[in-house]
Amino acid sequence: MKITEFIKTFDVRFTDLNAGNHLSNHMFLAYITDHLSCYLNEHGWSLGNIYGYSTLLTEVSIKFKREVFEFDQVTLRISETNIKSRKLSIHFTATVKDKIVATSVHDYSLMKDNRISSISEDVTKLFLI
């Protein structure tokens, strides 16, 4: 399965809300982490072990377009990936009822032996669009 075809939907619970009664930022990050973790699991890997590398989240940029409320269903998909020698950028799109509610870019480094490593060809293939 290509990475852009992997879609996961989350039911927004009361405990996912902030004081303003909409989805909290940290829960949105948790949804994205879970989405990526499930994609890797489908291929026999995990965030802690992708071809012997562990992942290190180095930067996140989120643009919220609409509020998300309790009982909404948030659908996440990966819209783009960019791979450089030591950086993997993954672009996520979140929708509710086919309307974009947020976009997010997550930058990851891959580590081996507690050092940031170059991204291997095997890892690159796993994340190609």
Automatic annotation (TrEMBL):
It comes from the Bacteria. Gene3D superfamilies: Hotdog Thioesterase. Pfam families: 4HBT_2. This is Thioesterase. It comes from Vibrio tetraodonis subsp. pristinus. The lineage of its organism: Bacteria, Pseudomonadati, Pseudomonadota, Gammaproteobacteria, Vibrionales.
